[in-house]
């Protein structure tokens, strides 16, 4: 079997918690194909558990929104320059950019122009917004690994080589999540309504959403005192979440978890959740949700100009309609968030229909992603 190099080395960058999960599943396939491989670059805790060598903390790149990125631009650009120089010096046979297109595509283009082969894992959402990225992707990537079935044909029309590898998270989440086991693990009774609060995995998301979510939870609890609230927080940001919670009306009334977002989604009856990859995870757990987002007003205006379709949440994009509510920017008031979440708890028939819709989606996204990724990467290496 072909090895990637004498050093068996891959370079990778995954810029946030969702990318860390995607990259860890990719590493499963690469390590099965090349057991003595070395992986280096920038990654998170799941990648580190695979023996990945992270040269910078992943949290340095976990910034979202135009204004927020501008505030950290100098540091992020400096990391990219230093990383590019180190990679060109070590010159691994392949660089894999995992999501984080604003960081990775420019890096990939620079490395590819110097002769390094590059793969981008997760097609940037040019079908949703930022259609102008097509030229950048074409210059940056020898191959794109796509997680949605309609993407390869779209990219091929644009002259970009691509493969559908399924959505790796679809194989991680069971088709029938064990709610009873999740509640037992969290010490939650089986007969109480549970709402999971997921205000995001980035500091900038927490800044704009966490307080709104806690205020919405207070309104929900006022209406239905029996509701129990759980909130997973990534370890690096737990202290900040704790501070926001203490300053809210829900101080001492929310069970904070160390990460464990999948456990929270398995245990809950509904979730109030930030727009992003986590919404797809919630759909795979067959959970009703209310998708929310709020950001700097200038960032919001700029993003609206780029939007090509009416949906923001991945479950709605994949279904082609608003199967779950989206409350964005000024619409994401605590009152509206609470009302929409409580509506799910009061609508069992509607929830059952949504669960069936999400089960069909789950089946469509299940593939042997690690093996398909390794197959595509081997072809790039041998080309």
Automatic annotation (TrEMBL):
Identify the domain of life: Bacteria
EC number(s) from the headed UniProt entry: 2.4.1.182
The UniProt keywords, alphabetically, are: Glycosyltransferase, Lipid A biosynthesis, Lipid biosynthesis, Lipid metabolism, Transferase
Residues annotated as coiled-coil are: none
Annotated GO molecular function terms are: lipid-A-disaccharide synthase activity
Substrates-to-products reaction catalysed: a lipid X + a UDP-2-N,3-O-bis[(3R)-3-hydroxyacyl]-alpha-D-glucosamine = a lipid A disaccharide + UDP + H(+)
Q: Which SUPFAM superfamilies match?
A: UDP-Glycosyltransferase/glycogen phosphorylase
The pathway where this protein functions is:
Bacterial outer membrane biogenesis; LPS lipid A biosynthesis
Q: What general EC class does the enzyme of this chain belong to?
A: transferase
Give the record's family classification.
Belongs to the LpxB family.
Q: What does this protein do?
A: Condensation of UDP-2,3-diacylglucosamine and 2,3-diacylglucosamine-1-phosphate to form lipid A disaccharide, a precursor of lipid A, a phosphorylated glycolipid that anchors the lipopolysaccharide to the outer membrane of the cell.
HAMAP family hit by this protein: LpxB (MF_00392)
Q: List the protein's name.
A: Lipid-A-disaccharide synthase
Query: Native species of this protein?
Result: Variovorax rhizosphaerae
The root-end lineage is: Bacteria, Pseudomonadati, Pseudomonadota, Betaproteobacteria, Burkholderiales
């Amino acid at each position: 079997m072909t090895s990637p190099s004498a050093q068996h080395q891959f370079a990778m960058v995954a810029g946030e918690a969702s990318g860390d999960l995607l990259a860890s599943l990719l590493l499963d396939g690469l390590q099965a194909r090349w057991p003595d491989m070395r992986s280096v670059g920038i990654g998170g805790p799941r990648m580190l558990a695979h023996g990945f060598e992270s040269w910078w903390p992943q949290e340095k790149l976990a910034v979202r929104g135009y204004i927020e990125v501008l505030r950290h631009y100098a540091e992020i650009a400096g990391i990219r320059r230093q990383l590019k120089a180190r990679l060109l010096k070590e010159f691994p046979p392949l660089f894999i950019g995992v999501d984080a297109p604003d960081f990775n595509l420019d890096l990939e283009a620079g490395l590819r122009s110097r002769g390094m082969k590059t793969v981008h894992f997760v097609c940037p959402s040019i079908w949703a917004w930022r259609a102008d990225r097509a030229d950048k992707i074409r210059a940056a990537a020898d191959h794109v690994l796509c997680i949605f079935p309609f993407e390869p044909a779209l990219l091929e029309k644009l002259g970009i080589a691509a493969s559908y590898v399924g959505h790796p998270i679809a194989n991680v989440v069971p088709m029938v999540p064990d709610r009873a086991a999740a509640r037992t693990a969290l010490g939650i009774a089986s007969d109480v309504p549970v709402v999971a609060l997921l205000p995001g995995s980035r500091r900038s998301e927490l800044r704009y959403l966490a307080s709104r979510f806690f205020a919405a939870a207070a309104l929900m609890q006022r209406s239905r005192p029996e509701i129990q609230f759980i909130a997973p927080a990534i370890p690096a940001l737990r202290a900040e979440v704790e501070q926001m919670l203490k300053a809210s009306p829900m101080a001492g009334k929310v069970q904070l978890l160390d990460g464990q977002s999948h456990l929270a989604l398995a245990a809950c009856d509904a979730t109030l959740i930030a727009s992003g990859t986590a919404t797809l995870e919630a759909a795979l757990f067959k959970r009703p949700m209310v998708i929310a987002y709020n950001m700097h007003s200038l960032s919001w205006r700029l993003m609206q100009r780029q939007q090509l379709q009416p949906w923001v949440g991945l479950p709605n994009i994949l279904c082609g309609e608003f199967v779950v509510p989206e409350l964005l920017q000024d619409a994401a008031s605590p009152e509206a968030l609470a009302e929409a979440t409580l509506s799910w708890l009061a609508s069992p028939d509607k929830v059952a229909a949504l669960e069936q819709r999400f089960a069909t989606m789950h089946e469509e996204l299940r593939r042997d992603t690690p093996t398909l990724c390794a197959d595509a990467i081997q072809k790039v290496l041998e080309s």
